[in-house]
Design brief:
two-stranded antiparallel sheet; 6 helices; 4 strands; mainly alpha; 2 domains; Arc Repressor Mutant, subunit A
Protein backbone atom coordinates (compact mmCIF):
# COMPACT_ATOMS: atom_id res chain seq x y z
CA UNK A 1 0.00 0.00 0.00
CA UNK A 2 1.13 3.48 -0.74
CA UNK A 3 -0.62 6.26 1.07
CA UNK A 4 -1.25 8.85 -1.60
CA UNK A 5 -1.06 12.62 -1.24
CA UNK A 6 -4.81 12.95 -0.80
CA UNK A 7 -4.77 11.34 2.64
CA UNK A 8 -1.43 12.75 3.78
CA UNK A 9 -2.25 16.29 2.71
CA UNK A 10 -5.73 16.17 4.22
CA UNK A 11 -4.34 15.13 7.61
CA UNK A 12 -1.56 17.73 7.41
CA UNK A 13 -4.07 20.45 6.52
CA UNK A 14 -6.53 19.48 9.27
CA UNK A 15 -3.73 19.45 11.85
CA UNK A 16 -2.58 22.85 10.62
CA UNK A 17 -6.14 24.16 10.77
CA UNK A 18 -6.63 22.79 14.29
CA UNK A 19 -3.47 24.48 15.49
CA UNK A 20 -4.14 27.78 13.70
CA UNK A 21 -7.75 28.15 14.83
CA UNK A 22 -7.25 27.07 18.44
CA UNK A 23 -8.69 30.44 19.47
CA UNK A 24 -11.88 29.81 17.48
CA UNK A 25 -11.04 32.03 14.53
CA UNK A 26 -11.26 31.29 10.84
CA UNK A 27 -8.25 30.29 8.75
CA UNK A 28 -8.00 30.96 5.00
CA UNK A 29 -6.91 28.01 2.87
CA UNK A 30 -4.20 30.16 1.34
CA UNK A 31 -2.48 30.35 4.75
CA UNK A 32 -2.58 26.57 5.14
CA UNK A 33 -1.36 26.10 1.56
CA UNK A 34 1.60 28.38 2.22
CA UNK A 35 2.57 26.84 5.57
CA UNK A 36 2.22 23.23 4.36
CA UNK A 37 3.49 23.87 0.81
CA UNK A 38 0.39 22.32 -0.74
CA UNK A 39 -1.28 23.64 -3.88
CA UNK A 40 -4.23 25.90 -3.05
CA UNK A 41 -6.31 24.29 -5.83
CA UNK A 42 -5.64 20.84 -4.35
CA UNK A 43 -6.56 22.03 -0.84
CA UNK A 44 -9.82 23.45 -2.19
CA UNK A 45 -10.73 20.02 -3.55
CA UNK A 46 -9.83 18.32 -0.27
CA UNK A 47 -11.70 20.85 1.87
CA UNK A 48 -14.83 20.49 -0.25
CA UNK A 49 -14.81 16.80 0.73
CA UNK A 50 -13.97 17.56 4.36
CA UNK A 51 -16.84 20.07 4.51
CA UNK A 52 -19.31 17.58 3.00
CA UNK A 53 -18.19 15.04 5.61
CA UNK A 54 -18.92 17.54 8.38
CA UNK A 55 -15.33 17.84 9.58
CA UNK A 56 -14.88 21.52 8.77
CA UNK A 57 -17.11 24.57 8.57
CA UNK A 58 -16.54 27.50 6.27
CA UNK A 59 -17.57 31.12 6.02
CA UNK A 60 -17.31 33.15 2.86
CA UNK A 61 -16.28 36.73 2.54
CA UNK A 62 -13.35 38.97 3.22
CA UNK A 63 -12.78 37.64 6.75
CA UNK A 64 -13.90 34.13 5.85
CA UNK A 65 -12.09 30.85 6.04
CA UNK A 66 -12.34 27.45 7.66
CA UNK A 67 -12.50 26.05 11.17
CA UNK A 68 -12.93 22.56 12.58
CA UNK A 69 -16.57 21.49 12.89
CA UNK A 70 -15.77 19.58 16.09
CA UNK A 71 -12.88 19.61 18.57
CA UNK A 72 -9.55 18.10 17.55
CA UNK A 73 -9.81 15.57 20.40
CA UNK A 74 -13.08 14.31 18.88
CA UNK A 75 -11.76 13.82 15.34
CA UNK A 76 -9.67 10.80 14.37
CA UNK A 77 -7.15 10.56 11.59
CA UNK A 78 -9.40 7.84 10.11
CA UNK A 79 -12.28 10.36 9.97
CA UNK A 80 -10.13 12.62 7.81
CA UNK A 81 -8.86 9.80 5.61
CA UNK A 82 -12.38 8.47 5.05
CA UNK A 83 -13.69 11.93 4.19
CA UNK A 84 -11.22 12.28 1.32
CA UNK A 85 -11.81 8.69 0.15
CA UNK A 86 -8.38 7.42 1.17
CA UNK A 87 -8.25 3.67 1.69
CA UNK A 88 -5.80 1.38 3.45
CA UNK A 89 -6.45 -1.61 1.24
CA UNK A 90 -3.21 -3.56 1.14
CA UNK A 91 -4.38 -6.24 -1.28
CA UNK A 92 -4.21 -5.99 -5.03
CA UNK A 93 -7.77 -7.21 -5.47
CA UNK A 94 -10.61 -5.18 -6.85
CA UNK A 95 -12.62 -3.04 -4.49
CA UNK A 96 -15.72 -5.22 -4.72
CA UNK A 97 -16.16 -8.03 -2.22
CA UNK A 98 -14.84 -11.38 -3.34
CA UNK A 99 -12.87 -9.96 -6.26
CA UNK A 100 -9.99 -12.25 -7.26
CA UNK A 101 -6.38 -11.23 -6.59
CA UNK A 102 -4.68 -13.12 -9.37
CA UNK A 103 -5.72 -15.68 -11.94
CA UNK A 104 -9.37 -15.73 -10.87
CA UNK A 105 -8.70 -16.69 -7.25
CA UNK A 106 -7.38 -15.21 -4.02
CA UNK A 107 -3.62 -15.11 -3.66
CA UNK A 108 -1.84 -17.03 -0.90
CA UNK A 109 -0.98 -13.84 1.00
CA UNK A 110 -4.42 -12.22 0.76
CA UNK A 111 -5.30 -12.70 4.44
CA UNK A 112 -1.93 -11.28 5.52
CA UNK A 113 -2.42 -8.03 3.57
CA UNK A 114 -6.06 -7.81 4.57
CA UNK A 115 -5.13 -8.16 8.27
CA UNK A 116 -2.42 -5.52 7.91
CA UNK A 117 -4.96 -3.13 6.37
CA UNK A 118 -7.30 -3.80 9.30
CA UNK A 119 -4.50 -2.99 11.78
CA UNK A 120 -3.75 0.26 9.97
CA UNK A 121 -7.45 1.18 10.01
CA UNK A 122 -7.67 0.47 13.75
CA UNK A 123 -4.53 2.49 14.44
CA UNK A 124 -5.75 5.52 12.47
CA UNK A 125 -9.17 5.31 14.14
CA UNK A 126 -7.47 5.38 17.53
CA UNK A 127 -5.40 8.51 16.86
CA UNK A 128 -7.04 11.90 17.26
CA UNK A 129 -5.98 15.11 15.58
CA UNK A 130 -5.26 16.47 19.06
CA UNK A 131 -2.81 13.62 19.69
CA UNK A 132 -1.09 14.49 16.41
CA UNK A 133 -0.79 18.13 17.54
CA UNK A 134 0.49 17.09 20.95
CA UNK A 135 3.08 14.72 19.47
CA UNK A 136 1.55 11.74 21.27
CA UNK A 137 1.47 9.40 18.30
CA UNK A 138 3.66 6.32 18.31
CA UNK A 139 5.43 7.14 21.56
CA UNK A 140 4.54 3.86 23.25
CA UNK A 141 4.30 0.90 20.92
CA UNK A 142 3.75 -2.51 22.47
CA UNK A 143 5.83 -5.33 20.99
CA UNK A 144 3.96 -7.39 18.40
CA UNK A 145 5.33 -10.68 19.75
CA UNK A 146 6.83 -11.51 23.11
CA UNK A 147 10.66 -11.78 22.96
CA UNK A 148 10.58 -15.53 23.60
CA UNK A 149 8.19 -16.21 20.71
CA UNK A 150 9.60 -17.21 17.32
CA UNK A 151 7.43 -17.05 14.21
CA UNK A 152 8.34 -19.67 11.61
CA UNK A 153 6.11 -19.35 8.56
CA UNK A 154 2.76 -20.02 10.17
CA UNK A 155 3.92 -21.84 13.31
CA UNK A 156 4.57 -20.05 16.58
CA UNK A 157 7.24 -21.71 18.70
CA UNK A 158 7.56 -20.86 22.39
Amino acid sequence: MELNTRGRYAVMAIADLAKACADGGLVPLSAIAERQMISLAYLEQLFAKLRRAGLVDSERGRAGGYRLARPAHAMSVADVMTAVAETTDMTRCGAEAGAPCLGGKRCMTHQLWEALGDHIDQFLAGVTIQQVLDGEVGCKRPPMLAPHVVFTGGVVLR
